[in-house]
Design a protein that fits this description.
Blueprint (H helix, E strand, L loop, with lengths): L8 H9 L10 H9 L3 E4 L2 E7 L4 E2 L15 E2 L4 E8 L5 H12 L3 E6 L3 H9 L3 E8 L4 E8 L3
Parallel strand pairs: 5-6
Antiparallel strand pairs: 1-2, 2-5, 3-4, 6-8, 7-8
């Protein structure tokens, strides 16, 4: 897998800008920081941002009353969180994602907006399983948590 370099920032940001509907929160400084940490893959015009947990981390969120939204999901130290996957063209992301799973060789979690049916179908097609619920924006934006586990 090719870890992005500083010179790749313009290409990466253009891919995100073309997909602004689903990635309105992605900022250039954020991607530059991840590049410096070797947490950005750029391969075949597909961008994956990720990192490995250094401690156990809850992935499910609580509602305003403090109750879990669905089943509690806990990632363990060493698990991977995939922050974003975005492609310039349709049809290229599955191959890169499967290579990423082989490269990272551990459990991979991600969260996605509950209304993003295209992404959710993509994750299911790529052998990920829905394992929990989450939310953002103080509970006003619901999300789903998916996991890939080779075993």
């Amino acid at each position: 897998m090719y870890h992005a370099k500083k010179d790749d920032i313009e290409k990466i940001m253009n891919i995100f800008k073309a997909n602004r509907k689903w990635f309105p929160h992605v900022r250039e400084y954020h991607i530059k920081t991840r590049i410096e940490r070797n947490q950005v893959i750029l391969e075949d015009d597909v961008v994956i941002t990720y990192h490995l947990y250094t401690r156990n981390q809850p992935l499910s969120k609580k509602d305003k009353e403090g109750n879990n939204i669905g089943k509690e999901v806990m990632a363990e130290k060493g698990d991977c969180i995939l922050h974003q996957i975005v492609a310039k063209d349709k049809g290229t992301a599955s191959t890169v994602l499967q290579r990423f799973f082989e490269f990272i060789n551990r459990r991979v979690y991600l969260s996605v907006r509950s209304d993003n049916e295209v992404a959710k179908n993509f994750y299911l097609k790529n052998n990920m399983k829905l394992v929990g619920k989450t939310s953002w924006a103080k509970g006003t934006l619901p999300g789903d948590v998916y996991m890939y586990n080779e075993s």
